Each structure stands twice: as structure tokens, then as C-alpha cells.
Amino acid sequence: MAHDTTDIPNGPEDPLTDLLRRGARDLIEQAVEAELQTFMESYAEDRLPDGRRAVVRNG
């Protein structure tokens, strides 16, 4: 290819690339949230001696 723009780091992007990147970010966010929810559920019954939950989500 004489004129390949795929290696321009801050060059203009086409709408399809932008859409795919946003979709990928959304899927990754959903996967991380699902994994965190599963992790939190697995420790839901663990308590400290004073009765508070041993594992909590901060933020």
C-alpha cells in the first residue's frame, strides 16, 4: 500500500472505527462489572469480628 493511515497514532478516525472502539470499551466494562459482582457475592457472608462485611466495594 502506498498510502496506509493505520499507523498514524493521532490521525483522523473513521466512524466505524470509533463505533467499534466504543463497543469494545462497553463490553470490557460489562465484563469487569460482572466479574466484580461474582467476586463480591463469593465473600458476602465473610464478616469481621464486629459484624461488618470483610470485603466491601470502595467507590
Which helices and strands appear, and what pairs or packs with what?
Blueprint: H1 15-42
Quick structural overview:
It is built from 1 helix and no strands. The chain has 59 residues and is mainly α.
Mean pLDDT: 87
Order of helices and strands: H
Q: Count of DSSP helices?
A: 1
Q: Which percent bin holds the helix content?
A: 40-55%
Strand portion: under 5%
Could you walk me through the main structural features you see in this protein, from its secondary elements to its overall organization?
The protein has 59 residues and is an all-alpha fold. 47% of the residues lie in helices and 0% in strands. It has one helix spanning 15-42. The chain is rod-shaped. The model has no long low-confidence stretch (mean pLDDT 87).
Kindly list the characteristics that best describe this protein.
single chain; mainly alpha; 1 helix; 0% strand; rod-shaped
